[in-house]
Amino acid sequence: MALRRPMLPLLFLLSAALGCTDGVSPGGPGSPDAPDAGAADAGVADGGPLNPAWFSGHALNEWFVIPGTQGAGGSAVNAYSGMALREDTSELWIAAAGGHSDSADNRVVSLDLRLDAPTWVLRKAASTSIANDVPHYPDGTPASRHLYQTIHWVPSVHRVMLVGNRGGYPNAYHYPKVDGFNPDTNNWDPAGTWADEAAAFTGMVRDGNGHIWTNGFTVFAPETNTWSEPLTSHPIPIRFPVAYDSRRNQLFSLMWADGQGYGTPGFNSSRIPVGGKTQYKVTLAPSAALTRLQGLIPVYAAMVYDTGNDRFLFYDGRAAPGEVFVVTPGATDDAPYSVSLLDLGPGSSTPPATVGAGINSRFRYVPELRGIVAMPDARQPLYFLRLE
Questions:
Q1: pLDDT at 388
Q2: Do residues 98 and 19 make contact, with C-beta atoms less than 8 angstroms apart?
Q3: φ and ψ of 289, to 5 deg
């Protein structure tokens, strides 16, 4: 079944046809066995808080640039795609981004935020053997696709994982495939290593067990390579964004219509206790900030859980660059969640507007740095927001 997506401006379509919607042409030099980005440079803490040069001296609640981080390593990540965060090394990962008519390039790149001057590193070059409308190219590597929220770091199996293949190259077909990339060898596991889904659902979020939940309410357990359907009641649709609330051990979803803008206008919000059987509706308390957010009609948006402040941070950034919405859980399970705007400091820079294809999972909470890293537009440098 072909993927529905909004009409794109002519300029975007022209660049997409050339496979360079992120402003960087596919291909380019690089070894498929590039060395690990490493952590020997200055800025990498030895048991203490991280304080790389790019991070030092910036005030709380102020956006600022991480210099030299533009380009996303040549990946077509602006095409409805995202990035994973490896929390134990504060590395960002992009793998097989692009898809549809945007790019066939399935390269893997990473960036180490611990370094004083982080830059993108090619971990595996794009396949030179391309085929159309397949989940894997002839060389066995995963075909390029829209990543959305499907890319995750899973510590239990030491893999960057792609859960579900949606919006594949070039006709946006879907495939129920799971793939794992080994950061030690810089290679993909052989096709078929990981169990297929029952249907071509899209991976959305990793819970506290390291399990990946999909928009079909199925759950993948990488450590046992098995799928399950734990819920007996799930009346509220979910797609993206969804965040894991570690304090309450539950998922929280907040999406406009179906997350892409199709369907009945308005927010669908819910919570799913991990280990439970039921999904529950979440009510949003009326506020000026909620009205503001509704007026933005946020699609292909992002949301993370800010563990230090027990709140969710929601970001769209297309019409209102830099505006971060704070969603605070109620005092009890049944209480409404409140929505407010994060009060940015006077020295805050304004990030570039998010590309029309959305920010997806290019907005990540980095525990070691106690803040948010964001990539609204891969042609521009990364931005960071200190929270503690």
A1: 92
A2: yes
A3: -65, -40
Three-state SS for 79-144 is: CCCCCEEECCCCEEEEECECECCCECCCCEEEEECCCCCCCCEEEECCCCCCCCCCCECCCCCECC
State the pairing for strand pair 280-281/302-306. Answer: unpaired
Using alpha carbons only, what angle is made at residue 361 by residues 291 and 272, rounded to the nearest 5 degrees? 70
> Which of 253, 325, 337, 343 shows the shortest CA–CA distance to 289?
325
Q: Is the pLDDT assigned to residue 14 strictly greater than 90? A: no
Cα of first residue to Cα of last residue in the chain, in angstroms, is: 45
* C-alpha span between 322 and 320 (Å, rounded): 6
The tens digit of pLDDT for each residue in 130-170 reads: 999 999 999 999 999 999 999 999 999 999 999 999 999 99
More confident residue, 1 or 249: 249
Helix (H, G, I), strand (E, B) or coil at 368: helix
CA dihedral angle for residue 168, residue 172, residue 178, residue 183, rounded to 10 degrees: 30
Q: Which of 369, 355, 356 is nearest to 304 (CA)?
A: 369
Query: pLDDT band at residue 48, thresholds of 50, 70 and 90?
Result: low
CA dist 253 and 247 (Å) reads: 16
Distance CA 26, CA 244 (A): 34
C-alpha closest to that of 52 among 64, 41, 68, 65 = 41
Q: Facing residues of 162 across strands? A: 151, 179
Q: Which tokens sit at 83?
A: 């990035």
Smallest CA-to-CA distance from 92 within 102, 100, 81 is with 81
